[in-house]
């Protein structure tokens, strides 16, 4: 049943749908006054599948709230079927492909799965290696090969270290380790011993006590770990550690993973520039 006032949003693709989601959400974020119910429909690879999607979109279009669809489908026969829907649709491929072909003076292949194909094998392998490194070094599970890290994210538990780590690995191919600051670490302003020699690669993360308590309550309700008092103490001590070691700091309370990752990449670039 459709919630009154909630806009149904569909992301359509003949590949993974990552691009449709990314570009569509970049537009939707400009409408904070609205609520959205999002649905990803990837790998629409045959006209029959496209017809089933059209039926779903048409049913949504009959609802009390006007839906919207975003598509990056590249295959002409799939796009033609999708465009028969009654649902308003933003076709990113159609909007930009003709213009790009005109500028380059060459006709595009217009086939599916090119955007997220392996493409540059060296870059692909680098990203896979970065993901493996991130998994091994998530939440301080391993301190092996820490010297290979491009970045070490440190923070009290549930400040957003893991999703940021994974995004940086997947999207940027960076070797990122993340290290949780526990009570024993926070008794001192010194960096924990396993990462003390990596100060120039460390970035601290914070949140507001209220937000951190809210997130922790979902994990361990009514525990000392989730109490506002404990969260306030941990964040205050972490902030003192960051200041003592002159670390860059990111507050995850109001920032998306994409925004935080962009700031981190810029910070890394600035550090690299300073060293050269």
Written description of the protein model:
This protein is α/β, with parallel strands linked by helices and 276 residues long. It has two domains: 99 residues, Rossmann fold (3-Layer(aba) Sandwich); 155 residues, Rossmann fold. The protein is 45% helix and 14% strand. The protein is built from ten helices and eight strands.
Structural class: alpha/beta
Indicate the mean pLDDT.
Answer: 90
Overall number of domains? 2
Named CATH architecture of the largest domain: 3-Layer(aba) Sandwich
In short:
With 276 residues, the protein is α/β, with parallel strands linked by helices. It has ten helices and eight strands.
Topology at a glance:
Layout lengths: L5 E7 L5 H11 L6 E7 L5 H15 L6 E4 L4 H7 L6 E3 H13 L16 H16 L14 E5 L5 H12 L3 E5 L2 H4 L15 E5 L2 H11 L8 H17 L4 E3 L5 H19 L1
Parallel strand pairs: 1-2, 1-3, 3-4, 5-6, 5-7, 7-8
Helix pairs in contact: 2-3, 5-6, 6-10, 8-9
Keywords:
single chain, 276 residues, alpha/beta, Rossmann fold, 2 domains, 4-stranded parallel β-sheet, 10 helices
